[in-house]
Amino acid sequence: MTFVVTTPAFSGPVQKLLELISGHDIDILDVEIAPLVDSFVAVVHNEQTNVSMDELSEFLLIAAILLEMKSGRLLPRPEMGEPDEEFVGWEERDVLLARLLELRTYGSLAHVFVSLFDRAHRSHPRLVGFNADFTVTAPDLLLGVTPDMLAMAFLKGIEEKPIPLVTLHHVTVDSVTVTETVLSLAGQLPTMGKVSFRALIAHATTRIEVIVHFLALLELCKLGHVALGQGITFGDVEIEWISERSDIEIEMVDVYEG
Predict the structure, then answer these.
(1) Residues ≥6 apart with Cβ < 8 Å to 223
(2) Who's near 69: CB < 8 A, 6+ residues apart?
(3) SS3 of 158, please?
(4) What's the CA angle centered on 257, arms 217 and 209, to 5 degrees?
(5) Closest Cα partner for 200 from 238, 233, 226?
(6) Which end of the chain is flanked by fewer CB atoms within 10 Å, N or C?
C-alpha cells in the first residue's frame, strides 16, 4: 500500500513528497505534518485496511525526517554558508535508503523462518524407544589376536634399542694448521724470491690446504715479513719476502702458540 497525502502544496505518495522537499521543489514550511499523521493513523485504525509492518515503519521514518527538516527550519541556528544545491537532501535520502534496506533484510529473514517452521510441521518425531529385543553389543577388540602375537609384541617392547650412530665421514678434519704453515712458509719464501700464490699452492690437493696457506700469508703480511700484490683484478697474487730478520721462526712460534 502506498500512502497518499493531500496538502495545499502537494497531493500524491508521501515518498514523492519527501523527494520534492529534499529537492527544494516544495518548501517544508508549506507542509503541515500533523494532518498527515492524523490521516495515516485513521487509515491504520480502519479495520478494512491492512497495513503491513514495512509500510508502517516506512511512514514513521518519512514523518520523522519531515519533522526534523521542519524543526531545523523553524529553530534558530548559527549563520552558515548555503550548501551546494546538488548535495541538498542527500543525507535524508541515504538514511531512508539504509532503513528500507534494513527492513527488507529483516523481512527476508522472517520469510526464511516461516518456511522452516512450515517444513518442521510436516515432520513427525519418533515417540517410541528401541524394541524390547534390541541389544547393543560392543565389538571384541581382541578378535583374531593369538597368544603368540601377544608374546612377540611383548618381546619387541622390552628389547634393547640400538644406540644411534652418528657418522663423521663427511666432516673435514684439518690435517694442517695455520701455525705450521706460517713456519713452513717462513723457511721457504726467503729463498724463492717473487712467487705467485698459484705456484705456491700447486702441491695442494685439498681445499683446506689452499685456505690455510692463504691465511698464513695474511698473517706474514700483517707482521711485515711479506708483501702481497695483484697487478690486475682477479689476477694472480704476487708474494715477495721483504723481511731481513733471522728470528722469524721463534717469533712466529710465540705468536701462534701464545
Answers:
(1) 251, 252, 255
(2) 21, 28, 92
(3) helix
(4) 40
(5) 238
(6) C
Q: If DSSP states are collapsed to H, E and C, what string results for 242-258?
A: CCCCCCHHHHHHHHHCC
H-type alpha helices, the chain: 14-22, 33-45, 53-74, 90-121, 147-158, 178-192, 197-200, 207-222, 248-256
pLDDT, one tens digit per residue, over 100-115 is 888 888 888 888 999 8
Per-domain residue ranges for the chain? 4-73+88-112, 178-256
Q: Which residue has the cell 721462526?
A: 249
Kindly state the cell numbers that stand for 147: 597368544
The single residue listed with the C-alpha cell 657418522 is 167
User: Which CATH number does 178-256 carry?
Assistant: 1.10.10.580
Contact partners, residue 27, CB within 8 Å, separation at least 6: 9, 21
